[in-house]
Specification:
The protein is of the alpha+beta class. It has one domain (about 5-325). It has 7 helices and 12 strands. The radius of gyration is 21 Å and the shape is elongated. The N and C termini lie close together (about 10 Å).
Length: about 325
């Protein structure tokens, strides 16, 4: 829906208020930009203040109605659109060495996942060079606490209510037997043979089967492919994996339009360097003489991204939402 002219003129002042409001609920003493092979929860929270990722816009308004025995009254509230950092997805080769330091406490070896990078055929040293294995975890962003707090004050600073919760495990690959066994996804794989991960002429690997083994020798490409596979099913319900859908706790409410399974995801890279939001993959490396992805390789700890999705909402100003525009 295009932005309504009546309200778009006020978007500039709201952007300043948004930043001020978020800073008030996210008091952090760490540096603004994390640089290195790992990242902490405090640094993730600080990176959630990226206004380019937030993309806050006033897009229209809502008309509310409240009726009593004496008649009906009407009131307006502005309608806003912005993105929220819902989860942090980490993709890495060795258990206990996730690039998000605090998330390692949530991951434990299981009977079918004793170590990262090892297969039933004999382990990492006997694996083909083109076959890599990645553990993937999808966990609620620690920054969500600030966004939940901002949503509670939406009468003065309109903010949408997230559907995900901080530090909640939505997918831990060591708890999912199907992450190491492609058999259960065979029908889906056959139906999606031409569904691949890539950009332009560059093809990283197939999206299916959505498992941790990736036939791709480039470490960043295999790491990203595994992360995209996990994010593909956590945004949906009733997939053949052990996970909690992102929208599992979403509740319908007037004046709230949360993301759906088809809503585009924007990826904010956190390690090994911090980058602003974009859709990945973002580079067709076949048109480059050198490797444009070499600066994103983090072979020991893997990579981590904060995933943002778009929300729309307007503060409640009555009993019933009559219309929005």
């Amino acid at each position: 829906m295009p932005r309504h002219d009546k309200y778009s003129a006020h978007a500039g002042p709201w952007r300043a208020l948004v930043l001020g409001g978020l800073l008030a609920v996210m008091t952090i003493s760490t540096p603004t930009h994390a640089r290195g092979s790992t990242i902490t929860s405090q640094q993730i929270i600080q990176e959630s203040l990226d206004l380019a990722c937030l993309d806050y816009q006033v897009i229209g308004g809502c008309l509310w109605m409240t009726c009593t025995i004496l008649g009906c009254e009407f009131d307006e509230s502005i309608r806003v659109q912005h993105q929220i950092p819902e989860v942090v997805v980490t993709s890495y080769p060795f258990l206990g060495k996730s690039p998000w330091v605090e998330s390692n406490r949530l991951v434990r070896p299981t009977a079918f996942a004793q170590d990262g990078g090892f297969s039933d055929e004999g382990g990492s040293m006997r694996r083909e060079q083109t076959l890599k294995f990645k553990n993937v975890d999808v966990i609620g962003s620690p920054a969500l606490l600030g966004y939940w707090s901002a949503a509670q004050a939406s009468d003065t600073l309109p903010f949408c209510r997230p559907v995900t919760y901080p530090m909640t495990p939505y997918f831990i690959s060591t708890l999912d037997p199907a992450w190491r066994d492609p058999t259960i996804e065979t029908p889906l794989t056959l139906a999606n043979l031409f569904n691949t991960v890539g950009k332009g002429s560059s093809r990283f690997a197939g999206l299916f089967p959505r498992i941790g083994f990736v036939k791709q020798s480039h470490d960043y490409k295999s790491t990203l492919t595994a992360a995209i596979r996990a994010m593909d099913f956590v945004r949906q319900a009733r997939q053949p994996h052990v996970y909690l859908p992102l929208n599992a706790n979403a509740t319908r409410a007037q004046g709230q339009w949360p993301p759906t399974a088809s809503t585009q995801r924007h990826w904010q890279q956190l390690t090994p360097t911090v980058q602003s939001c974009k859709q990945l993959p973002d580079i067709d490396d076949t048109v480059y003489l050198t490797d444009p992805y070499r600066g994103r390789v983090n072979q020991t700890y893997g990579n981590s991204w904060q995933i943002w999705r778009e929300y729309r909402c307007c503060p409640r100003k009555g009993t019933a939402l009559v219309m929005y525009f």
